[in-house]
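Hey, resending since the last one bounced:
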Amino acid sequence: MPTLDGAVDAASDEFKANEAALLEQIAQVEKLQAEALAGGGEKYVARHRKRDKLLVRERLELLLDRDSAFLELSMLSAANTEFHTGASSVHGIGVVSGVECVISGHDPTVRGGSSNPYTLGKSLRAQDLAKENRLPLVNLVESGGADLPNQANVFVVGGKWFRNMTQLSKLRIPTVALVFGSSTAGGAYVPGMADYAVMVKERAKVFLGGPPLVKMATGEESTDEELGGAEMHSRVSGLSDYLARDELDAIRIGRQIMAHLNWRKLGYGPTEPADTPQFDPNEMLGLVPSDPKKPMDMRPIIARIADGSRFDEYKREYGTSLITGWASIHGYPVGIIANQQGVLFSEEAHKATEFIMLCNSYDQPIIFLHNVTGYMVGKQYEQRGIIKDGAKMINAVSNSTVPHIGVICGSSYGAGNYGMSGQSYNPRFLFMWPSARVSVMGGEQLAGVMSIINRAAAERRGEPFDEEHDAMVRQMIENQINQEEQAIYMTARNRDDGIIDPRDTRTVLGIALSAVHSNVVEGTTEWGIFRM
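The structure tokens again:
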């Protein structure tokens, strides 16, 4: 397979300016990540430790295989909102007793581990990842249930969480609940619906209604232990399958459960040499233009992601603003679709459609590297059939059954986001670089469109057009879109699986590819009607 020439001039002024701009964006992300890592803050962390309890990430670290990787997902959920960064939970992909699984844990130092709308979004996404990729799901439980002041935005939709748990079990995807503390009301169904429930002696409390609620509803007086203690559920109700002496014992039992699953992956796994790329991944920082309007050269980026920097490009001379071709990442064969110049013309749409169909014929996952401003507009392109051609590409993306993994490197605007398998097209994983921007179009363009529409409306009414007011409105719209399209804004609202450092892209893709191969990796020959 040919090897890409990924050499760059790291000493150039442009490279250094790009690097400095991206490092500043990474620093903003790391600041928010520190907020998530800090949990509820010193006061609540100290209170938790005073009760002789482990923090959620300490539980996670002990559960995972020694020196194994953990890919934390949606770490900045709820960032810069009224809720705590991280949404009082930790979710990710890790390996427990040799079994790759999804791990979902409550952070009890943040409002008792209660679930707000952002927490629910993360939890549902974790279940989707378990289901789509056939990964066992381990829940680290210590939660007071729904955040009651926000129950209107949690309760009704939250029912899907319970439905998903039962469906995972039906699909023979194991679910495990390790209960370290309170798990009340709706939270009681976490161990109730899991295939395996482990409860910590004198710590786990699982009941639909606590002593105060029971007394109010029935007049009955009882203790926490009588109502829902770990010993009662282990010896009387049978809700608990294992009674753990302490937290460490619960984690040991959890690892023991995973070890006896006899779990086997169904994907064909890595089949190519997983040799490292020939170019320094740290140089990725200088490859991302500091000006988002400038095109991003994707070939040097692919050269720092693909095994041995090998890339077999498909139709290189045709539809040149889109790159398609085959490579492998950590030994996993993949097809890669990358935006080279941003705009998609009819030729690019044709090329992508054919390539997606070929990847399905070969049962190869597809990596989408986004930097797209949309499909080309204008009289000439409309008459040539850009709508039909774009629809072909979206048809292929929509009906493709091989796993899609996306990385939004730069812009991802308009229907170009759809054609590149954006979030609404259910990619198995979707990550963003700090430079990512996602919107129907750029702020300047959207503000300009609105100005044209308002000017035309004033002319139809025969009214003078207020240029000063128009300038103010345009600036307001532009500012709004420029804020809402940013990676941090989007990831805070669970529109992806997390912001990643570009230098970590190869590693993140390797973990994601390993995860998708837990399930069958198989393409399709069935498509919708292609408009000719």
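The mean pLDDT is 93.

Sorry for the duplicate.
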